Amino acid sequence: MIPVIALVGRPNVGKSTLFNQLTRSRDALVANLPGLTRDRKYGEARSGDRPFVVIDTGGISGDEHGIDSEMAEQSLVAIEESDAVLFMVDAREGLNPADQSLALHLRQRNKSFHLVVNKIDGIDADVAMSDFYALGVESMFGIAASHGRGVRAMIADVLQSFPAEEVEEDEAFPNSTRVAVVGRPNVGKSTLVNRLLGEDRVVVYDEPGTTRDSIYIDYQRGDRDYTLIDTAGVRRRKNVKQTVEKFSIVKTLKAIDDAHVVVLVMDAHEGIVDQDMHLLGHCIEAGRGLVLAVNKWDGVEPDQRDWIKSELGRRLSFADYADTHFISALHGTGVGHLYKSIDAAFESATRKLSTNALTRILEGAVFDHAPPMVNGRRIKLRYAHAGGQNPPLIVIHGNQTGKVPNSYQRYLEKIYRRELKLVGTPVRIEFRTSD
Ligand code: GDP
Ligand code: GDP
Fold first, then answer.
1. Binding positions for GTP 2 (predicted)?
2. Residue 148 and residue 143: Cα distance in Å, rounded?
3. I need a surface site. Which of 88, 93, 142, 151 has the fewest CB within 10 A?
4. pLDDT band at 282 (very low <50, low <70, confident <90, very high)
């Protein structure tokens, strides 16, 4: 599972600066996608090739009138959900009573945390840090977030306590398609989960156990095995106390990362809102198979349907590889079609692609439309092979591959998608220079 790191501390200690530093490259990727806005609070980041989620909790003042009253509900949830807390303090200001009450508060919540002394640039770091020994924290780092100093090493250290583990394959269901049903509150996830599981053709296996995150439900439909990742907590055992609110972004992000195919549920009545775009952005970044379900279609007047469809097509054009279904979870309309798209996306996302086929398609594409000249030399693309699945990664070797224009890369993507009939999944292309 992807570790979640929460940034906590008084205002102005540098939380947003660190957040931006950690998520910079990932954010840029999202910013390139037209029509995508981003909730600043939750970000994706990487340490080496290890992904993690970082949360900027913001707004904890920690004054002596009691932290709880001051702490926004979201901050509490974020701390609760995180695997590690980075408690940030300001090296230039020295130890502040508010820091002390915040430390006390974290201890009371039984959260292990690391102390991050920020803004050590241009001052004696050891002296500045010694001021904070009084907090009695074992794990302490000195960084300068705005310069990036000490940041990589700190993150690597913090992540070390979370062994990188592959997604655990369910032993009883080794080949099962993991389907995550995600979406904002009230779009109809619970209703849809019940529909997906309640179909006549579905045999649900184990009474779902609980994890801290979502519920994983194994079942069979026809001759296929599925594991439904239920972020709405529909089938949670009654006696299991819910420690976090029903909808949680972190839980959703984790479910997406753990899925083969994500069913993103939206509400036809409300159109596409920023949070839908945010979740969609994450699905794309994570490279997951994707099916869009526009729910509550039953309540939409016939004369509005065309308009909604064209509006969706326009705003979701960058995710046009995903099938869109207009469904009514309430009445069960369109649910069977969802399964068709889920199966197709799974098949595409996990297909084994042969070097021969990939190279042949590359040759055809180059023959039809050669890459441009760069500095009087033509870019040569020689052969291709598969670099991974879910999402399919196609590695193309050649010379001057660093100069391949984005438009040409998109052209190749389009050709591969068409020739291989890949649906419902992003296709990634990576170039290697082999001369
Ligand atoms: P937040 O309120 O905790 O999110 O704090 P910000 O990230 O907004 O930072 C508050 C101020 O501290 C800003 O003016 C930052 O430029 C500054 N700042 C953040 N990190 C550093 C640092 O490493 N060194 C210095 N000198 N200033 C920093
Ligand atoms: P969740 O918060 O995403 O799990 O949403 P719920 O499944 O709890 O649904 C929220 C509300 O929308 C409930 O009142 C549902 O009855 C209603 N709802 C769900 N699906 C549909 C649908 O297809 N059509 C209509 N009209 N209402 C629906």
1. 183-190, 230-234, 295-298
2. 7
3. 93
4. confident
Contact 218, 170 (CB under 8 A): yes
Q: pLDDT tier at 3 (50, 70, 90 boundaries)?
A: confident
Residue 227 CA to ligand 2 centre (angstroms): 22
Q: Is 0.90 topped by the overall pTM? A: no
Per-residue confidence (pLDDT) for residue 243, from 0 to 100: 46
Q: Is 103 helix (H, G, I), strand (E, B) or coil?
A: helix
CA 234 to chain centre: 22
Structure tokens of 124?
Answer: 């004696």
This complex has an ipTM of 0.71
Do 391 and 287 touch, CB atoms closer than 8 A?
yes
Q: Is 187 in the pocket of ligand 2 (CB under 6 A)?
A: yes
CA-to-CA distance for 144 and 147, rounded, in angstroms? Answer: 5
Of 82, 92, 76, 77, the residue nearest 145 (C-alpha) = 92
Which ligand lies nearest to the CA atom of residue 184 in the structure? 2
Ligand lying nearest the CA atom of residue 116: 1
Residue 158 near residue 209, CB atoms below 8 Å: no
The CA-atom distances, in angstroms, between 356 and each of 75, 98, 363, 386 are 52, 64, 11, 10
Give which of 382, 384, 394 is closest to 351, Cα–Cα. 394
Alpha carbon nearest to ligand 2 atom 22, residue: 296
**Residue-wise pLDDT tens digits, 358-377:** 999 999 999 999 999 988 88
Which candidate, 200, 255, 203, 248, places its Cα nearest to that of 229? Answer: 255
C-beta 184 within 6 A of ligand 2 = no
Which ligand 2 atom is at minimum distance from the Cα of 328?
A: 23
Report DSSP letters for 180-229, one per residue.
Answer: EEE-STTSSHHHHHHHHHHSTTEEE-SPP---SS-EEEEEEETTEEEEEE
Nearest to residue 397, comparing CAs of 358, 367, 370, 426? Answer: 358
Judge whether 11 and 63 are in contact, CB under 8 Å: no
The dihedral of CA 318, 319, 320, 326: what is its sign?
A: negative
Q: Measured from the CA of 58, which atom of ligand 1 is nearest?
A: 4
